[in-house]
Design goal:
The protein is of the alpha/beta class. 40% of the residues lie in helices and 22% in strands. A hairpin with a 2-residue loop joins β1 and β2.
Amino acid sequence: MHRYSWDDLKFVLAVADTGTISAAARLLGVNHATVLRRIANFEEEHGAPVFERQSHGYSLLEDKAGVIEAAREAQEAIFSVAQRMQGRADAISGVVRLSSTDTFCQAVLPEFVKLMTEVNPELEIELLCSNDYADFARLEADIAVRPALKLPEVLRGEAVGFLGFGVYVRPDMATEETRWLGLQGALKRSAAARWLEEETAGRPNVFGAQADSFLVLRALALQGLGQAVLPCCLGDEASGLVRQTGPLEGARVPIWVLTHKDRRMTPRLREVQRRLCAFLRAESLRLSGEDIAD
């Protein structure tokens, strides 16, 4: 029977988290050779490799994802013992990877990260920004916040409110002749894009510019290049723009807090997810755009 050592698992987890031996060494405060030796010892003891060595770093073998999950659970248990011994059983520690869109990463989630890390100084939240779903199967994120009408089958989650949209323009550009700013990339599949398509149907030369990011669309609108359909939480906070409409009917989208259905939810992840849901519900009026009267 193997004698599992947290010291060995710690090195395995550091390489999985950072992707390279040198980065893992910096994280753990040891030299490059020590990390290599510990990884080799672990793989030799258990009779199988955990990582695939590639030119750009170390990639976790697909069938070893469970090893990393088990290592995280071991880390969680050890931290929990230490917290209870020190009388801090309610503290949260360790790393949580949180994925969301650029809108949420810019306008919503930094406040949540600040609140969480202030009361849990040993908690580290990695905020991953992407307008496409993170690849949970490769452990890129533990939890995701996504506005979506339909979820992929591999994800499970809880709806915590709605993301509202409005039409925003610079005050000096608020005329009937003002052109629109179009949505491209992943945004082209959004409810906001469908609303805009119906609104501009049959009208020639309607777009002054287009972008695949609501943050970029807001910047273009601030430059006076056209009117934009924006999430209310972005548009309402732009001092150089005015909202032309209330929250658009047909464009609002449920906000989901998600995990992969195969993800083992450790106490740390469950608690962060619970607090994240509570935070987003408290922000529901701002996110829906209903906190500002027409």
